[in-house]
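Researcher: If convenient, please comment on what follows.
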Amino acid sequence: MSEGRSCPLAYRYEPASLCANPMPVTEDVLYVIGGLYGNPFALDEIERMALAEERQGRSVKLVFNGDFNWFNANDDLFRDINSRVLGHTASLGNVDYELAAPSTGAGCGCAYPEFVDQGVVERSNQIMARLQDVAGAHPDIQKRLSSLPRYHCLLFGGLKILVLHGDPESLAGWGLAHESFAAGNSEKLTEWFRSSGADAMVSTHTCLPVLWSGEIEGRRCLVANNGASGMGNLSSDARGLIARLSLSAPLSGSVAGLESGGLHVDLMPVDFDIKAWLAEFDHIWPEGSPAAISYRKRVLEGASLTPGDLVFPSIF
């Protein structure tokens, strides 16, 4: 397969191994942050959101599940984003993996499916090549990225929360994508929950958000894909989204939410300074650049979904 559509063997893992050693979490709330894409203003807002919760007596753990790099293709912003993110719990996305240890023939490492236009694929490869040049000037950051895991299993409120980037078979898998749920692909989902023993899977990578809950072999299970925290996900809405997990009732202001087995999962909007981010984006990626062509409209206008498109009924 061509660059940008292939999936390196190093991206792959066995579902049965993913929750073998869950890490206990003592905080009251989890923020799972995927697809920051190098947006420092989104990170500012996420930190502000966590601080507001802590002021109300709730401890918050920030967990980054990959692709915190992408548009931050200058030295200062690259170092700022990575230094801040790596102070928290983090795992790799394909972007971060390819910055730490580029794979021959992988391009951006996105493993884009056939329904994605080839022009998008080629521009993503060009974005990656430029970002790799920047990363090469920061070997200390590359070393820290190379030490990150590809996923985390967290023990939260007695539940196993599998936090990954793509799906339970690949760092760049699309099995937990909005498109996959829209197509009703239930067989793999059943297998993944059965094999992993996870109670919830929290993903990103595919840029469009998803919430799903259902019963698998008598056990309540849940999937959340936050889409992107650093870029708009809904129609005419430039705000990012994060997944907020808690054992208490959800906060007001969520875009969409589900409860399963006592676990509340909400997609919370990240209302960052869009004017400031657009100015920074345009400086790094001017008109005609690969990122401007592929992403500027979405930065301004969000994606095509409405909140009602995010929650999928049980497909079993």
